[in-house]
Amino acid sequence: MGLILQRLYLKYMFLFPRISILLSVYDTSFVLVKRAIDSVLRQDLQNFELIFIDDGSHAALAHEYADYVKLFPEKIKYLRHTNCGQSESINRGIAWSRGEYITILDADDEFKPNHLSLCMAEMAFADLIASHTETVVDEEADYYVPDRHDNSKVIHVDDCILFATLFGKRQVFSQYSFNNTYAADARFYEQAAREYIVRKVDLRSYVYYRNIPGSICSVLKQAKYKESMQAQLS
Hints:
about 230 residues; alpha/beta; Spore Coat Polysaccharide Biosynthesis Protein SpsA, Chain A; three-stranded mixed beta sheet; about 40% helix
């Protein structure tokens, strides 16, 4: 009888999840993707759905992703489409989601085991939050990212609104969408602030790995370095 009740409870949580977690993937190493998924599955708050969005990854990786995701049908929903970028993938994930609250996880990062429960506790005071992160770096410079107002300058990551640390009520994510530009996260946060209660909080339960080759921040940083070197040589 206990096993039957447990299965019914898991089915109920999947049909009516409290939180929808959106994870968009494009050709990210399976090892990193598995780490991200596993960090969700280890959460101390289990009433969630993970919407795994394959944004047109190459076939071999797509098969690896799908094979792993299928091991957790009661927790993970799998979507795949032609490559359209992370912002549009997240917009589509929002449309498919069913949770009362929505958050995002980058495929090369991870949650600490209490991330969801800590974020939920903040919802008593806000409609949308963005948090600081536990940032993993190789060098001091990795704490800095290009300023969205002037890409020739950098700002500390703690002073940014980070895409994947956004956590909020469904109506906020349903009302606004993410555009496919650098700092789409900050623009979303600023839009929401016009009508909703938004807060930047110091949870640091999201583990942010810097710098991942090929990320937007990394590409901009490399471009800035090349411009600096060319200026010195000219």
